[in-house]
Predict the 3D structure of the following.
Amino acid sequence: MTAASDLAFDPWDPAFVADPYPVYAELRARGRVHYYEPTNQWLVPHHADVSALLRDRRLGRTYLHRFSHEEFGRTPPPPEHEPFHTLNDHGMLDLEPPDHTRIRRLVSKAFTPRTVARLKPYVEQLAGELVDGLVEAGGGDLLRDVAEPLPVAVIAEMLGIPEADRGPLRPWSADICGMYELNPSQEAAKKAVRASVEFSDYLRGLIAARRKDPGDDLISGLTAAHDEDDDRLTEQEMISTCVLLLNAGHEATVNSTANGWWALFRNPQQLAALRADHSLVPSAVEELMRYDTPLQLFERWVLDEIEIDGTVIPRGAELALLFGSANHDTAVFTDPARLDLARRDNPHISFSAGIHYCIGAPLARIELAASMRALLDKAPNLRPAQQPKRKPNFVIRGLEGLAVEVR
């Protein structure tokens, strides 16, 4: 074990955030687990360990189903943060069985292969329309004009959020997700709390409306489940589930699209190969998610003592599973620093694993492929207009924007 502070791991350093992958290689070379004092976490950088620990039931996304904060040796969150934690802690991503199992079983009905397949024509049509707008304008911001509106519209359509109400969805999501960064600032916490209150109030009203006048959408379905005796959902669980689906349903897709196209622009030979052979799109989607991972870190609480390579990690500790590092592990990926759109053996973990595997992964793949194909077909000469600025965030990795030109 090496103290991560002895290395160059610094999630607040812009240079590290710009390119964390060389530091990950050093972490992997120095050991399987590293204590990082600034966040009081144990960093786990190897693919095999990350993959195994995501499935290890001695770990959990929460500990409150077994311990109080005090019993677990943790300080309760400040009272002023309560709206965020109420919203976050009742979503299935931060629950453990049996509550996680109950909620996921209900939500999974909206993500069956048949349901997702039915969405494909709508996703492809919308992607084409967004790219048409970009082409007509001669270019623009690929993130703002294509990457963001596509998944937001799709998940809002699934949930049944009226088109006129969708404007605040992305800002609410961005502010809530600010709390998932390491040691978020007081300002980030205030924004997350405010967004949690506003989003929850909006959904509470929409749920009431759907109860009176149900439709063919997920919110109506969850409302019906709330009113049944079996697998009952509380109203807070419904609200938290809807927010989670919106946030998780587009954050990864938005950032994968922008990160992916910026990677393609920096690897012109691979981009040329993709333009010449559109059958590479499915493997390109997987490789781009591996190459520049949209979610760099996922946390787990140690519910029962574990041991990693001779280091005992006690109950009450927190693990930081480094997805970005795992996706560049030379033990699993040949020449991982090289972008290879035809890579065949690609067991990346960008969608997590175990019981918390991303329920929307099939839909995300459809969205990413649809926007990529539309851009390849309609904007074959797409090129960057300027160097993009990377967001300062480490955990959720993305760009501020991606200015492009269409010749």
